[in-house]
UniProtKB/TrEMBL annotation:
Protein name, per record: Flavonol 7-O-beta-glucosyltransferase
Matching PANTHER family: UDP-GLYCOSYLTRANSFERASE 72B1, UDP-GLYCOSYLTRANSFERASE 74E2-LIKE
Species: Opuntia streptacantha
Keyword DNA-binding appears in the UniProt entry: no
PROSITE patterns named in the record: UDPGT
Keywords attached to this entry: Glycosyltransferase, Transferase
Gene3D superfamilies documented for this protein: Glycogen Phosphorylase B (3.40.50.2000)
Length: 109
């Protein structure tokens, strides 16, 4: 256990590897933190789809037929979020969504 909001808000955090629980996802979005989506069950795969395909604030980990994410896949996903043109696009989307959340929370939002 850790104070997740404090950790996610720290300037050293470049991305968040998440199981895609709704609370964790909302925390990352509200702080503008790009995500590596690694869902397990229930609503998490749907949330992962939103993260990667709709909001474009992260990427989804591909798992083997046994449901295992390889070290190579994890590295690839983290690099996609942290580096290069795709990383810039994801960071821009995360920043935009953060701003929209902020505006929605303001009076009259």
């Amino acid at each position: 256990w850790c104070p997740q909001l404090e950790v996610l808000a720290h300037r050293a955090v470049g991305c968040f590897v998440t199981h895609c629980g709704w609370n964790s996802t909302l925390e990352a979005i509200s702080l503008g933190v790009p995500m590596v989506a690694f869902p397990w069950w229930s609503d998490q795969p749907t949330t992962a789809k939103c993260i990667a395909d709709f909001w474009k604030v992260g990427v989804r980990v591909k798992v083997t037929e046994k449901g295992i994410a390889t070290a190579k896949e994890m590295e690839y996903c983290i690099r996609q979020v942290m580096e290069g043109e795709r990383g810039k696009e994801i960071k821009t989307s995360a920043s935009t969504l953060k701003q929209l959340v902020k505006e929605a929370m303001e009076e009259g939002g």
